[in-house]
């Protein structure tokens, strides 16, 4: 597989025949990937488009790419179109959730503070973590061959999230206490709508939170009789949803 590098959207268009990549991304290509003249590289713009190129010069922390074909749309989010709303877990668990959710094709990720979230709500202190998650999402997109990068929303409280008006979407809460299965809830929902899925931190939701979310349209669904860790929940839920309504469903060919 070709190396991939993120570039600015404007760099893919235009009439230039070559593009210089420097800064962190150039450094990565030179020092980590160790590209050589003649290697094939795909430049992607983080918004869904990509363009094939060949390395025509390697400098100190700088690589010159020459386009070998036109820009086209690349692999993007799963067709289930999921906004993954994650109750903030402690430590670096969110890093793994962002990485796996990106690989599994979420359209966006919304971190929320819940009653049992360990990290306390201090929005001004969140900028560095938000930037870290954005970097992880970009890196995961690069590695898994997505041409887009899922948006990471600024952290907000669960109450604020529930108070915001809902669009035309299917809203679900992953809750171990739910009687409805994920499959039953999906089969009862209209086809073709995007999803908003709310999942709890490692301490879970308080019942009042599940009720408040239900009042805002988030139907509680179960992933089975075993209690999953927060990071397992994201992987299991997104995989199951992709089978039921996304890229893993149906019988169409999946070859790239
Ligand atoms: N409250 C629980 C565990 C929370 S697990 C306890 O401490 O015993 C973290 C999150 O994963 C939950 O908030 C829920 O969103 C999700 N989750 C875990 N197991 C689940 C299951 N079987 N079905 C649906 N969601 C589940």
Polypeptide structure, described:
It is a single chain. The chain is built from 8 helices and 13 strands. The protein has about 260 residues and is an alpha/beta fold. It has 2 domains: about 5-75, Hypothetical PUA domain-like, domain 1 (Ribosomal Protein L25, Chain P), CATH 2.40.240.20; about 80-245, 3-Layer(aba) Sandwich (Alpha/beta knot), CATH 3.40.1280.10. S-adenosyl-L-homocysteine (SAH) binds near residues 203 and 230.
Supply the number of helical segments: 8
Overall mean pLDDT: 94
Residue stretches low in confidence (pLDDT < 50, at least 5 long) are: none
Question: CATH superfamily membership of the largest domain, which one?
Answer: SPOUT methyltransferase, trefoil knot domain
Topology-level CATH name of the largest domain: Alpha/beta knot
Bound molecules: S-adenosyl-L-homocysteine
Order of helices and strands: EHEHEEEEEHEHEEHEHEHEH
CATH architecture of the largest domain: 3-Layer(aba) Sandwich
Q: Oligomeric state of the chains? A: single chain
Question: How is the secondary structure organized here?
Answer:
Elements lengths: L2 E4 L2 H4 L5 E4 L1 H10 L7 E5 L4 E10 L4 E5 L4 E2 L8 E6 L5 H11 L4 E6 L13 H18 L6 E2 L3 E2 H6 L6 E5 L7 H6 L7 E5 L7 H9 L3 E3 L8 H16 L11
Parallel strand pairs: 1-3, 7-8, 7-12, 8-9, 8-10, 11-12, 11-13
Antiparallel strand pairs: 2-5, 3-4, 4-5, 4-6
The structure holds S-adenosyl-L-homocysteine.
S-adenosyl-L-homocysteine binds next to helix 8.
Summarize this structure briefly:
The protein has eight helices and 13 strands.
State the main characteristics:
256 residues, alpha/beta, Ribosomal Protein L25, Chain P, Alpha/beta knot, seven-stranded parallel sheet, six-stranded mixed sheet, 23% strand, elongated, binds S-adenosyl-L-homocysteine
């Amino acid at each position: 597989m070709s190396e991939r590098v993120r570039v600015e959207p404007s760099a893919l268009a235009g009439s230039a025949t070559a593009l210089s990549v420097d800064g962190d991304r150039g450094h990565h290509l030179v020092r980590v990937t160790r590209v050589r003249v003649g290697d094939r590289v795909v430049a992607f713009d983080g918004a869904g488009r990509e363009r094939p190129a060949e390395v025509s010069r390697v400098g100190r922390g700088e690589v010159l790419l020459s386009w070998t074909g036109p820009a086209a749309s690349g692999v993007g989010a799963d067709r289930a179109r999921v906004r993954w709303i994650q109750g903030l877990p402690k430590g670096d668990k969110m890093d793994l959730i962002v990485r796996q959710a990106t690989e599994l094709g979420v359209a966006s990720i919304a971190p929320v503070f819940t009653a049992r979230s360990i990290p306390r709500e201090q929005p001004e202190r969140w900028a560095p973590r938000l930037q870290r998650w954005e970097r992880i999402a970009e890196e995961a997109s690069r590695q898994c061959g997505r041409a887009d990068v899922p948006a990471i929303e600024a952290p907000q409280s669960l109450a604020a999230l529930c108070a915001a008006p809902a669009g035309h979407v299917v809203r679900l809460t992953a809750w171990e206490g739910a009687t409805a299965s994920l499959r039953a809830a999906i089969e009862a929902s209209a086809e073709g709508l995007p999803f908003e899925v709310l999942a709890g931190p490692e301490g879970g939701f308080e019942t009042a939170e599940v009720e408040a979310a239900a009042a805002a349209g988030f139907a509680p669904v179960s992933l089975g009789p075993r209690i999953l860790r927060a990071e397992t929940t994201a992987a299991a839920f997104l995989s199951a949803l992709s089978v039921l309504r996304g890229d893993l469903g149906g019988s169409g060919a999946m070859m790239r």
